[in-house]
# Entry
Amino acid sequence: MNRVWSKLAAPVRLGLFLAAMMGAALAHAQSAPVRVPILVYHRFGARVTDSMTVRTAVFADQLRFLKEHHITVVPLSEVVRYFRNEAPPPPANSIVITADDGHRSVFTAMAPLVERYKIPVTLFIYPSAISNASYAMTWEQLAELKATGRFDVQSHTFWHPNFHIEKRRRSPADYRNFVSEQLVGSRKRLQDKLGGRIDMLAWPFGIYDDELINLARESGYIAGFSIERRPASGRDNVMALPRYLMTNGVQGGAFERIVEGESPNPRSRPEKNQ
Ligand SMILES: [Zn+2]
# Structure
């Protein structure tokens, strides 16, 4: 073996070595599933004015807690690559932070803290709201966040429909066309406006089923995200990875339990949210 090895040209030896290392990493990824809590925030503010608002001070405390306890905030795309067996596992004690809907407080309140703690964040955006709805960011603000290198922008469909309702009120063919337009239209608009690859999808209201997953795959998405109170793992369908809905009540011990990867109720159903 050693004689054969020594006769190989150096580049071939290097190639074989790297292939063996990659194989070991992927085998490890398959044999020891890593569980990663994925958090989803919506809005931030000085006061809690609705169920989806987290006080900015609470969010700041959470980021300080993560830093003090050496929890690594990793990019969502990295975790997806791991779940797709395309990359080695993220570091132990990893967590992912996302924010849905493009609320302007992401720009005014979240972004300064993201910059202070130098963490990666993925924003799920539905383009119809941007530079349009009074509560939403503008395209310029989104571009500014993306330019920092800390924010990835991904799809939340085009106008955030409730697919349960749309399925009831449309014919099967019309419904499929509608879903495809929502999925493809969002990717296209985000790509045109901001550039980059758009291949991750947050399901509006956390609603998904097999038909929606198939349509999302056909539309070029490689990962999807729902709302369920448990950490994501390689055993989950990568097109419906669970995320913890962050409300202002998730403080102290409740936050610590999420960070530790505990499932308060493993059989909990997807929660309705915006
Ligand atoms: Zn939403």
Summary: The chain has ten helices and ten strands. The CA atoms of residues 54 and 247 lie 6 Å apart.
